[in-house]
Every structure is written in C-alpha cells, then in structure tokens.
Amino acid sequence: MNNISVYLINASLILLVIRQIREHPLDARSMATPVLAVSCAAVLFLHSVPAGGNDLVLAVACVLTGAVMGTIGGLATRLRLGADGRPLGRAGVLAASMWIGGVGARLAFAVAASNGAGPAIARFSVAHHITGSAAWVAALVMMALADVLTRMVIIYLRGRRLAAAPAATAAGIRAGVRA
After folding, report:
1. pLDDT tens per residue across span 137-147
2. Cα-to-chain-centroid distance, residue 157
3. Within the chain, what is the greatest distance between any pair of CA atoms?
C-alpha cells in the first residue's frame, strides 16, 4: 500500500470526528460508521498477529492504550435526550482530541518509519524482542480497533441508561413512588 493510500485512509478516519462533533442521534448508523471505517482499515493493514518474541506484549500494550483512549473519548462525549426521547451525542474537545490524537500518532509513526526512523525502530525492536514491522502494524491496528470499540460501547451503554432513566422515573411516579 502506498503512502497516498495511507494518508487518504487516515484523513477519512479523522474526518469521522466532524460527524461526532455535530450533535447526532445515537442510532445504528452513527454507531456503526466508525466501527466499519476502522474495520476496513484493519482489513487493508492487518494480515496477521505475530506472536514471537515480545510481539504480544506490544499488541497488549497498544490495545490497552486504545481502550484507555476509547474510554476517555466515550466518557467525554456529551449525551442528552432529544425531544422524541432518543439519546443524542456530541463529542466534546476531549473526545475529539482522543480520536484525532490516536489517528495522528499512528500516522506519524507510519510516516516516520518510512522516512528515516526505520533503522531506529528496528534497533528498538531488536532490543525489545519485537520480531518486525508486521508486529508494529498489528499492534497499531488493534489499538485503533480497541479505541473505537471501547468508545462505541461506552457511548451506547450511556445512551441506553439515559433513555431508560426517564421511563423508570415516570413509572415510579405513576406507581406513587416519589424521588
């Protein structure tokens, strides 16, 4: 895959933030779009998950980093109920920064690796028993997947809880229970 393709894929992933910054209903389409976009990138870049040396340690570290970023992004997304009682979401500065920062850091690593930092990354890999570039690609792709999936699950669960709260309160009032 050439550099232009990598840039275009990463630019499209960053543009997804624009959709998240505008308030939008938390429906299947808005939840599935980021997951599908990162899944497409995974299909293009993730060909295997190397398990030699410390490759799995690298992968786990990247997945945990992605999950932390996704958690922060999911918790930093503003949610409210719309007039129809459905939850609406809007990414704030912190949530958008987590997404842009993650995509930007992975892109910067890829650009650096192919523009002079390759030997330094190779030395680091040898010193830390990472078997090669396939391990880095797998770890960074899985980081992106963990970020998106964690963020979407948290937003989905928060939205469900928000939508259920008025119904539970209304049911309690009808039954004579006072808050």
Report:
1. 899 989 999 99
2. 16
3. 71
